[in-house]
Design brief:
With 120 residues, this protein is mainly α. It contains three helices and no strands.
Length: 120
């Protein structure tokens, strides 16, 4: 809990969400382009055709970009959104105003609680 809320918090969460969404869509698109690109590259390497056609080059490029770029965007968006954390609630802010940002009872390893009457 912090006493001063981060003014950039909602914007950072939205941006991370958009990055994640675009990355997931790109990964979905790669499921259509990468298998076709692998098929074209396998035919060329096996010697069944002389070279890559225009469509094969385009599909290979789009497949590589969507797979690598989509994965990078999804990971970056997830981490960015996660690092923004949750915004402090009004109850958290009220508790911070009343009790401060520190722990309620400071930790002191030398200080032990007094024994209760029923303990020996």
């Amino acid at each position: 809990m912090s006493q001063t809320p981060d003014p950039q918090h909602p914007r950072r969460r939205r941006t991370g969400g958009w990055l994640l969404a675009v990355g997931v869509v790109a990964l979905f698109l790669s499921t259509f382009t990468v298998p076709e690109a692998i098929h074209h590259l396998a035919r060329v390497s096996a010697g069944e055709s002389e070279g890559l056609s225009g469509r094969a080059v385009a599909v290979t490029a789009v497949g590589a970009v969507t797979l690598i770029g989509g994965g990078a965007l999804a990971i970056a968006g997830f981490n960015w959104r996660r690092s923004a954390g949750e915004a402090p609630s009004p109850e958290d802010r009220l508790l911070d105003e009343q009790f401060g940002d520190g722990p309620v009872l400071p930790y002191d390893p030398q200080h032990r609680r007094p024994p209760r009457d029923d303990e020996d």
